[in-house]
């Protein structure tokens, strides 16, 4: 198998899409996100999925399990499965991050230009992760 390699900060910075799935494995998934000024991921809970987010640029708030913490470039936040969370852009520039889900949360290769598009596809059942059945 070939080495799968990304210069992840550069890869994340060059994408203006709200969400872009870069890689999907059987047990984990790598996703880059760009949250516009005054935007947010949206409050959610992943019942059976752990999530690790690393912030590449911008400023924001991590709202996880009832606590709020400022996030900036270089910060990493862990969201254990079953924990209510949201990430909000509080700065004048996009909040850029990459995240790892375990197991995968989104359809392999999914690209969602906006949060609205992402929400519509999720509600329509068109953003389902691959299954290993």
TrEMBL record:
Swiss-Prot/TrEMBL keywords: Isomerase
Keyword check for Isomerase: yes
Comp. bias intervals (Basic and acidic residues): 106-116, 123-133
Region described as Disordered: spans on this chain: 106-133
Family matches, as Pfam families: Cupin_2 (PF07883)
GO MF, any single term: isomerase activity
Domain Cupin type-2: from-to ranges: 32-101
Keyword flag S-adenosyl-L-methionine: no
PANTHER family assigned: LIGAND BINDING DOMAIN PROTEIN, PUTATIVE (AFU_ORTHOLOGUE AFUA_6G14370)-RELATED, QUERCETIN 2,3-DIOXYGENASE-RELATED
Protein name: Mannose-6-phosphate isomerase, cupin superfamily
Organism expressing this protein natively: Trujillonella endophytica
